[in-house]
Design a protein that fits this description.
Elements: E1 13-18, H1 24-32, E2 38-40, E3 48-53, H2 57-60, E4 68-75, H3 86-100, E5 110-114, H4 121-134, E6 137-138, E7 145-151, E8 158-163, H5 185-193, E9 202-206, H6 212-220, E10 225-229, H7 233-245, E11 253-255, E12 269-275, H8 285-302, E13 303-313, H9 316-325, E14 329-336, E15 345-351
Parallel strand pairs: 5-6, 5-7, 9-10, 9-12, 10-11, 12-13
Antiparallel strand pairs: 1-3, 1-4, 2-3, 4-8, 7-8, 13-15, 14-15
Helix pairs in contact: 5-6, 8-9
The structure holds S-adenosylmethionine.
Length: about 350
């Protein structure tokens, strides 16, 4: 049986990053922002980015546009049973230990192994031995320490993936108030990046709901002003709670404004973001037929020339028609993303 060679000093870790499908380019861009120590693969399956990474693992915990990050360890073994052998088992524990050391003691209480045949005798024993060696209990699929075991892509050997955080990175600590239709934190961060954020931005989040976009914009960097508006008082209350949890109260201005009649001067906003009512959980298609045209015209009025407007909607045909009818908006791109089985688009517009 081949032996695991010791990791040469300075050899990069193999990392796997999961994104919402459709956001790979934005996540690659964020990874490149980590500097030359991060070398994302050019290609990969949808929603998956392999990375050779020579930097501090801890820095990966700060990624904001990705859902989950895994540390990958390859084992040149024909069957998972070999992982129970002394040398390989020590390598399994070393990977787990590397991840646990990134977090305060007690951050991980349970473990979960995801694998084909996870309930087989061999994998049940592997879980039990990892539990005994780490002091973690074998838990359910929301276990803190998430391990995945799979055959290597080239068919030779097996790979163990250890999730780098007790929860997916897209689970935000600021989300203390949730609402039906609230936007995934990583998608919100990606949308905020698409507005080309700058420190002197006057940023407007239309229909802010629980404030996902507003918060994620300010977590990227400062803005001169950051407005959130919603016609629903309960949404504004929820937004207020989350903004306080993110410690951003002093930097956000929340208003009960109707997006179709904004009390803002013309050309007074530098960037606009909105997760529009899709007509599924929030609003209806009939309402959208009258809301969207007025909202797009009003957004064009308040946007200064060159301003980016980034809108998420499942009303693809309606949006395409309305954008084509409005010469004031130029369409940069329309990204089709996977949002829990729905496939809305992120429309990136620029005010002409
Ligand atoms: C899909 S939700 C936004 C969810 C939000 N991104 C979040 O993460 O919680 C759409 C929001 O638009 C608001 N809305 C609908 N019509 C509006 C209007 N005319 N003016 C302002 N807000 C509006 C709704 O109250 C709702 O909160």
């Amino acid at each position: 049986m081949a032996k695991i060679p010791p990791r040469p000093v300075g050899r990069p870790h193999r990392i796997e990053v999961m994104t919402a499908e459709g956001l790979e380019l934005i996540a690659r861009d964020e990874l490149r922002g980590l500097g030359p120590s991060a070398r994302p693969d050019r290609d990969g399956p949808p929603g998956v980015i392999g990375v050779d990474y020579a930097g501090e693992l801890r820095a990966l915990l700060g990624l904001r546009t990705v859902q989950t990050v895994y540390l990958v360890r390859a084992f040149p073994v024909p069957r998972p049973k070999a992982l129970l052998g002394d040398e390989y088992f020590r390598a399994v524990l070393a990977s787990i230990d590397k991840v646990r050391r990134l977090h305060p003691p007690g951050a991980f209480a349970s473990l979960f192994l995801s694998a084909a045949g996870a309930e087989s005798t061999v994998l049940t024993r592997l879980k039990a031995e990892i539990a005994a060696a780490t002091g973690l209990r074998v838990g359910t699929d929301d276990g803190d320490l998430l391990l995945r075991l799979r055959r290597a892509a080239d068919g030779v050997g097996w790979e163990l993936l250890v999730r780098l955080s007790p929860r997916p990175l897209a689970t935000r600590p600021w989300r203390v108030c949730n609402r039906e239709g609230a936007l995934n934190g990583a998608v919100a961060s990606a949308m905020a990046r698409l507005t080309a954020p700058a420190p002197d931005d006057r940023f407007l989040n239309i229909g802010c709901g629980s404030a996902s976009l507003l918060i994620e914009r300010l977590l990227i960097g400062p803005a001169r002003r950051a407005f959130g508006c919603d016609i629903d008082p309960a949404a504004l209350e929820c937004a207020r709670t989350n903004i306080a949890a993110a410690d951003l109260t002093a930097r956000c201005e929340l208003h009960p404004w109707d997006a179709t009649r904004l009390p803002l001067h013309s050309a007074s906003v530098d960037a606009i973001c909105a997760d529009l009512p899709f007509g599924h959980l929030v609003g209806s298609h009939a309402e959208n037929l009258s809301l969207y045209p007025t909202l797009l015209s009003e957004a064009a009025r308040v946007a200064r020339p060159g301003a980016h407007c980034v809108l998420l909607s499942h009303e693809v045909r309606l949006m395409e028609r309305l954008i084509a009818e409005r010469p004031e908006w130029g369409l940069h791109s329309a990204l089709r993303i996977d949002l829990g089985g729905l496939h809305p688009r992120i429309f990136v517009l620029e005010r002409r």
